[in-house]
Each structure stands twice: as C-alpha cells, then as structure tokens.
C-alpha cells in the first residue's frame, strides 16, 4: 500500500484545479483529476466540512489500492489538500489534530472508488464515492503514436461499428450477431434510435464475424457477416435487405491474406490510410488467444517486395482480446472491438495513429 | 481465388492472388470430444432436488449451465433443458455424463462435438490423467495448484470468487452469544490458512465480497486479534466451547477447522471439531462451514444472491432489488458481518488443469459455468 504525505507539488496545484475536459467518462487530456474526479473529491470535502466544521486541524493520509499511477495519486492528494485548505482546514501532526481523514483510492468491477474513513474522536464514518470506469492508460510517444478512444460498450457481442460523418447529431452504428443498431448522440450519451434485425438465415457461427463497409458512403453501405450481406441506405434503415452471399471474398479472408505476406503476426491486421516517413502504416493485434489481454501495435510497411513490416512506436494495451480490427473511414484511424476480460463487455474503440518525430 | 486487401476508403484496394484456404492459429476448429474429470458426485441434475454437499451443488450448476440457455438474476435456469450450448446425451447418476453440441444454440454451435464428464475422480487421479493426456480438463483443488504447476501441468485459475465461511446455527447456546462469535472471528489467523493450508491460493476474507469486485473489502479486517479475542472470552461467564462441524468428505474443510481450533485455543477459547455428514439431516454442532460461489462479478447482484442464501441462516432479509451504489452495498455487508452470525474466512479460486489439446480456454467468469462452448481442440503435443 502506498501512503502519500505532503508532496512538494504546490506549484502544480493551480493547474490541477483548472477545469479538465472529459467525454464519455474517459479523459483524453493529460489534466488530472478530471471533472468527474474533481466533483467527487469536492463532495468529499463538503462531507468533511459538515462533520468537522472548519477551522479545524486535520490529518490527511491518501492510500492507493487501485491501478492509478503514482502521479495521479499525488495529483489527487494535492487536489484534496488544496481543496481542504481553501475551506480553512489546517494540516497538522497526529497529536495536534481533531479529525483524521484516511482516503483510499480503490477499484472494483464498477470502476474507481474514493473511500474515505473520517475519524473524529471515537466516531468513525465511512463514505464511498464511485468514479466510473478506469480511464485509458497514458500513451507513450515515439514511432507511430496510437491514441485510444472508447466509443461504446455493451454486454452483447459487437462485430463491428461505425461512426459515419453525418454532421449533427452524431450517429453510431453497431453491428451485432442478429442486429444492426443505430444510435444518436444526445445529452452526452448514445441513445438507441432504431435497429434492423438480421434474420437467422442459418445457425450463427460460434465466432461470427462482421464488417461494416461504408466505403461507398452511407447510402450504399453493406453490413457483411459470415455468408450474409445486408445492404441498403444506412441513413434510412428501412431500406436494408439481407441475403445469402458467398464467403470467398469476405473481408477477413482478404485481411488474412495481406497479413500473411506482410506481417509476422497471428493476430488481425488493418492497413490504415496513413504514411509515416514514406511508409504505409498498418495496425495489428497481438498473437495470443482470446483468453488474454491484447494490444494494438503500429507497423511501418516496407517499401521493398517481400520486406516484412516493422513494429513502430509503443503498443496500445487493451483489457482483453481484440476480436475485430478494421480500418476506419477517416485517415489514420482504425476501429477495434475488444472483449474486456474484467467486465465481460464488448467495447468499441477508435484507434488513431499519428506519426511522431 | 481473388482477394482484396481490406483498407480504408482512401486507400486503393490491392488485388492479390492466392491458392487454397488461409489457416490462422487464432481461428478455432470444430469437432472432437472434450474429456473432463471432476471430483464431485452429482446424483441428479434436477435443480429441484437437494444436494448433499456444496461441491455437488457447484458441479450440478456447472453441468446445468451447459444445458440451459441462461440464468435469471434470482438464479433460476431459463429456457428448457437442451436450450443451452449442449444437450444431455447420456446420464449415469454419480458417475458419468455426456453432452453433445446443440446445433441450433442461439449463440452459435460449440466447437467441440461433445463433452464427456467423469465424476467422483480423486484429485490425484485427475492430475495424473491430465499429465498423461487422458483428460483435457480436470478440476484441481486450490491447495494442489502449486504442486500441479511444479509438475508442468497447464493450470487455469479463476478470480477468487468462492467464499468459505463459518455460519452459526441458531438456537444453540454457544451460537447465540454474540461475544463468543466475535471472539472466535477475531482469533482466526486467516492469512495462515491461505499461506499454509491453501498454499497461497486465495485471499483472506473479512467481508462477503472480494476486493476485486466491491473495492471495499479492505474495510473489513482480516487480521488476527488474539489479544482482543482473549479479552472477550475472559469476560464470558458460561461455557466457551464451540462445536464446529465440517463435511467428513471435505479435506479442506477439515484442515481449516483444525487450524481454527488451534487459533481459538491460543486465544483462550475452545473449539471442538466434529466430522459431519451433510446429507444425514440434523447437525450436532454450534457452527458449520458454508461455501458460497459469487453469482455475479457485480457486487450488488452478488451480495443480493448471497443474502438470499444466507438470510434464513443469519436472520437477514434480502432487499427485493440489489443495491446499486457502493455505499449501500458496503452498509448492507457491514450490517451482516457485524452480527458475527457468519464469519468469512477465505476466498477461493476455481482451478483447472488443462490438457495439451485445449485451445481458447477462458478462465471461468464469476457467475458463469464451464466455458466449454468456446473451447476447441487442437493438436496435442
């Protein structure tokens, strides 16, 4: 257990208090604590002030039992101290204080927890503040830089997803085993706006695969499943029709073929529309089986015939196997579906690759 | 066969020629029989019939999870038998079961054609059969995991999601004295149980939910407090003897019971351990062991099911809906544990030895049964 006392981080405190940006419960910026954390830490400050009205001497101890990095724990510690100081609390040694505040940053299946044990005299009060799901890990730099954005998660299997650029409101299409679901963004959340049932023309495979082909635009989109194509104007789902097709030209077979020639990987691969240093960039998953956590690695594809692609940059670590990896419509982006081994949910991630110097 | 490279709309598609199908190490194959060995003896698969031991109940749940479509939040099986990934083909009560793949399973046909389950196999024989490739999957007692791994067996260990605890039997004088119950709880060295009896598999338990699920288990002390236990016992004027019953067929329960008796004696208490036959009806003991598997990784759902099971024993009424907020969950858990009617001891993982043919084995998820529908068989070594 890591116990943090007063760090010499006063100079950082002001910037840490600046309102951070947050979306979908994940923070894409380097500012920490995020607004979600700040809200809960502020509520903790309110509670402490109610229990021990300031001015008051308080002892603060912050412990970490979560996967948060030491830097983030230090930032939280500093944020709390600054917050309590602004409420006229004074920090003192154990014998001179009236209120002992032990804050443990913990983590369960529902996300992070701020667990406060507030002891005043013989009275002990335990207060627990949930802070949503863990945030994405910080990304290292160098080579092909990968950034991850969690778009969507659900308990049921996700085969593929797409974020067509339609303007407002943003739309999300999720391809499932027996359904194409359409969501629109409203009040910071994706709301189901309709769905098309894909009839079970044959028993579903144990490992069904799917791909949303938006290369001809939304009006001529195809949802490709194992042996079934669903075509139509995806802006008008009522036009979508599903039929049997040959599986010979299934995109996953084509992906496999390209990968065998260019990448020494047993995982999935996607060639994205990005070049770094004159080389095309591909992304590929790890080679483990679907019982293991996985990663997405950037590769610079060789320009010479027969030249294998070279791994470039740091891999993007994910919390479960990548069950699908496809190039997205936008330049330098790929869609990844991850089965989160901690939660059992399927997650839709948008992976963005950029060239770093 | 012509194949295109799948690329973004901004990338020119590449046309490649190839001959023959493409094989991938990650993509599963269909076919074969999965050979499974377990220690439990399941006499009936009917959920309405009683079971003699927690081990039998757990094994029956595992087999039924193969046969039914799913389970309701209350734990009842949904769909008809055979609506799950497999259907029952052969059944020899207490000895053997064969299930075959359900071609029309809603989530897709399992990869293996069938699963043959041998029951009542001794732990030593199960391990040997895995080593000799006579079995593909075999249960391994948690305390045997280390030894199995040292012998080169591929071992799969789940999250620690099975609670071993003591419950006091209402109506018995020793059980009805809360101070006596508290003294016993404080005297137990849970870390020693994990380190020595379980060979470091599992975790000490102070609450009804593990840390990985609730995130608040650390608020429930698991530390031995011999001094306080001695104080409490010294204040009890009546008899301090507690009779602790363990399942005569469960060597783990026996080892833990004997350790608890030693701990209690060091703290000035007295625990007498007696072997019992759970199927034989009345229990002549003040306390007995319970083993509770978590029904869900979600702490609110898991606690609700735990309370539903323990409620009649510890006198707690279950809320109709699971608590959603961590504060509520913690408060409920604290209220039950502070009665000392139930004394949590350790969290156990489920462990399996895997043969060399087994591919895509997923560590059994909490609340889920055996993951046989996802397993496929490759070439052995």
Would you summarize the structure shown here?
The complex is a heterodimer of chains A (357) and B (381). Chain A has 357 residues and is an alpha+beta fold.
Count the helices of chain A. How many? 4
Envelope shape of chain B: globular
* Number of structural units classed as domains of chain A: 3
User: Could you give the order of the helices and strands of chain B?
Assistant: EEEHEEEEEHEHEEHHEHHEHEEHHEEEE
Can you give the helix content of chain A as a percent range?
10-25%
Structure description:
The complex is a heterodimer of chains A (357) and B (381). Chain A is 15% helix and 42% strand. Chain A has 4 helices and 22 strands. Chain A has helices at residues 10-17, 35-51, 70-86, 251-262, and strands spanning 2-4, 56-64, 89-91, 99-108, 111-120, 123-130, 144-154, 160-162, 171-175, 179-186, 189-197, 210-213, 221-225, 228-232, 241-244, 269-276, 279-285, 294-300, 310-318, 322-327, 333-339, 346-355. In chain A, strands 1, 2, 3, 4, 5 and 6 form a 6-stranded mixed beta sheet that branches. A 4-stranded antiparallel beta sheet of chain A has the order 7-22-21-20, with no helix packed on it. The radius of gyration of chain A is 24 Å and the shape is elongated. Chain B has 2 domains: 33-158 and 351-377, Periplasmic binding protein-like II (D-Maltodextrin-Binding Protein, domain 2); 162-348, Dipeptide-binding Protein, domain 3 (Roll). In chain B, the strands form 5 sheets. Chain B has a 7-stranded mixed beta sheet with strand order 6-7-8-3-9-17-10. In chain B, helix 4 (178-187) runs antiparallel to helix 7 (226-235) and helix 9 (299-314) packs parallel to helix 10.
């Amino acid at each position: 257990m890591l116990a943090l006392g007063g760090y010499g981080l006063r100079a950082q405190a002001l910037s840490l208090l600046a309102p951070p940006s947050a979306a979908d419960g994940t923070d894409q910026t380097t500012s920490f604590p995020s607004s979600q954390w700040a809200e809960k830490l502020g509520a903790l400050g309110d509670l402490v002030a109610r229990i021990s009205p300031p001015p008051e001497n308080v002892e603060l101890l912050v412990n970490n039992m979560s996967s948060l990095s030491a830097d983030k724990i230090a930032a939280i510690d500093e944020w709390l101290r600054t917050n309590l100081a602004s409420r006229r609390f004074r920090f003192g040694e154990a014998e001179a204080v009236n209120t002992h505040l032990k804050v443990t940053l913990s983590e369960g299946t529902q996300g992070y927890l701020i667990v406060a044990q507030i002891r005043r005299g013989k009275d002990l009060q335990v207060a627990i503040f949930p802070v949503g799901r863990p945030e994405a890990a910080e990304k290292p730099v160098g080579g092909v830089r990968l950034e991850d954005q969690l778009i969507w998660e659900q308990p049921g299997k996700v085969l593929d997803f797409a974020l067509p650029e339609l303007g407002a409101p943003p739309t999300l299409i999720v391809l499932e085993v027996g359904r194409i679901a359409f969501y629109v963004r409203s009040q910071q959340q994706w709301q189901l706006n309709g769905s098309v049932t894909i009839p079970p023309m044959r028993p579903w495979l144990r490992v069904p695969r799917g791909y949303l082909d938006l290369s001809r635009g939304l009006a001529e989109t195809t949802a490709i499943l194992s042996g079934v194509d669903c075509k139509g104007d995806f802006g008008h789902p009522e036009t979508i029709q599903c039929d049997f097709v040959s599986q010979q030209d299934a995109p996953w077979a084509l992906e496999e073929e390209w990968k065998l020639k260019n990448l020494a990987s047993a995982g999935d691969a996607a060639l994205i529309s990005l070049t770094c240093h004159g080389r095309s960039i591909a992304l590929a998953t790890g080679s483990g089986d679907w019982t293991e956590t996985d990663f997405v690695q950037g590769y610079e594809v060789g320009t010479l015939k027969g030249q294998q692609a070279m791994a470039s940059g740091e891999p993007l670590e994910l919390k479960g196997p990548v069950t699908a990896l496809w190039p997205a419509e936008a330049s330098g982006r790929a869609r990844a579906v991850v089965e989160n081994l901690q939660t059992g949910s399927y997650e839709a991630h948008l992976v963005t690759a950029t060239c770093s110097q | 066969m012509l194949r295109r490279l799948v690329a973004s709309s901004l990338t020119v598609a590449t046309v490649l020629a190839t001959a023959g199908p493409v094989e991938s190490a990650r993509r599963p194959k269909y076919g074969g029989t999965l050979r499974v060995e377990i220690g439990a003896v399941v006499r009936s698969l009917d959920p309405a019939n009683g079971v003699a031991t927690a081990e039998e109940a757990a094994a029956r749940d595992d087999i039924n999870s193969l046969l039914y479509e799913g389970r309701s939040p209350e734990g009842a099986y949904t769909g008809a038998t055979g609506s799950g990934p497999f259907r029952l083909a052969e059944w020899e009560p207490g000895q053997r079961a064969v299930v075959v793949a359900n071609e029309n399973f809603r989530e897709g046909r399992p990869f293996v054609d069938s699963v043959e389950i041998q029951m009542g196999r001794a732990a030593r024989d199960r391990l040997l059969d895995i080593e000799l490739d006579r079995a593909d999957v075999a249960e391994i007692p948690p305390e045997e995991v280390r030894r199995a791994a040292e012998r080169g067996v591929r071992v799969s260990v789940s999250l620690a999601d099975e609670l071993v605890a003591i419950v006091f039997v209402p109506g018995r004088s020793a059980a009805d004295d809360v101070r006596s119950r508290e003294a016993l709880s404080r005297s137990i060295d849970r870390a020693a149980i994990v380190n020595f009896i379980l060979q470091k598999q599992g975790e000490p338990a102070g609450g009804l939910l593990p840390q990985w699920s609730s995130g608040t288990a650390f608020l429930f002390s698991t530390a031995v407090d011999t001094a306080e236990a001695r104080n409490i016992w010294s204040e009890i004027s009546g008899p301090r003897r507690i009779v602790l019953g363990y399942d005569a067929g469960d060597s783990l329960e026996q080892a833990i019971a004997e350790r608890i008796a030693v701990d209690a004696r060091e703290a000035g208490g007295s625990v007498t351990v007696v072997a019992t036959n759970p199927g034989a009806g009345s229990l002549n003991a003040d306390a007995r062991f319970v083993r509770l598997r978590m029904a869900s990784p979600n702490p609110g759902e898991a606690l609700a099911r735990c309370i539903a099971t323990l409620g009649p024993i510890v006198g707690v009424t279950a809320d109709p809906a699971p608590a959603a907020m961590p504060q509520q969950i913690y408060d409920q858990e604290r209220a039950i544990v502070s009665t000392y009617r139930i004394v949590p001891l350790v969290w156990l993982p489920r462990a399996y030895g895997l043969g060399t043919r087994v591919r895509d084995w997923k560590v059994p998820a909490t609340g889920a049964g055996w993951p046989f529908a996802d397993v496929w068989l490759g070439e052995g070594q």
